[in-house]
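Colleagues,

Please find the record for the two-part complex below.
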Amino acid sequence: QEVHIGHCRVQRAILQELWRAFQAMKSTVQALDHNTETRLLRQEFFQNATWAEICCLNYSLLDFYLSNIFNNYHTKAAELGILRPFITLANNFFVVLKKLQHCKERGMFSLSENSERKFQLFQKEFTKVCLKSWGVWELKGG
Amino acid sequence: DEAVILPAPPDLSVHSTNMKHILTWSPVIVPGETVNYSVEYQGEYERYYTSSHWIPSSWCSSISTPECNVTDDITATVAYNFRVKAILGTQSSAWSTLKELFNRNSTVLTSPRMKIIKDGYHLIVEFEDMGPYFEFNVTYWKKSPNSQELYKIVREGGSLEHLVTMEAGAEYCVKAQTVVEIIERSSAFNQVECIRAQDESHLL
């Protein structure tokens, strides 16, 4: 199916490209992830949200992932042999981000207080996870 | 012997038809020697967030022909840049890059090759397999006064698709175009093809 976020449409074909890339790297990445208690994105993140809020949260999340995750793990992805699906995800995230950017510039959504709070919650969880993994890295004499 | 100064491969460009993308350049000639080439690329994400990162092309890390099929490298509808360098022994040229970035939404879409078949009274259509991105928008109608055009989307090529059960003795026509949703474009329609169903008596 397609994703319609207000007037923004993300074609089925892009979602299929994202899904294929995700499947190609999922097992490799999950095998390395020993921290399984923390959930960054929760079900209620989007519950009762307006489409403008969903648009906004998606925009913030995509921008966050592209700025913080993808550029820090590029070399690691190459080492793990998953660079191709990794950059397919990154570039297709970038396609969706540009579509949402287009909606944002036309004033279709703005960061409401509620979504701002939700996104800060996500960032706090992410920082916790990072600190924990750096801690582990330190203990192992990384 | 005096080290040969290898020039960067000139005239880099991408030729793309039906979502198959071929990067070509002019060869670097060194008499009596075989010059190899190495190809790397960047998507818009890399250019925007990690501009120092270039990714080795899937198939062209050390090739001797001045062309590279980069179809597998282009996996998003964003602007890509490519660079190529010449390699001779331990020597490498400077990188040359595209004058204009390439986006797969500029690919040339040709109208589809189509076969229409009648199996008894059944009108069946078959398209060539053009790869995972291609669907086929089929328009068909019975050739008679004020007949109505009907439409069908065929999701993939290389398989038989039943269009309609024909009326005895009637003539039916079909035309089609390719649809590539990921770049939000379609080809021109192909040539209309018509076929006549057997008369009723013929089958008794």
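The two ends of chain B are 87 Å apart (CA to CA).

Comments are welcome before we finalize the supplementary table.
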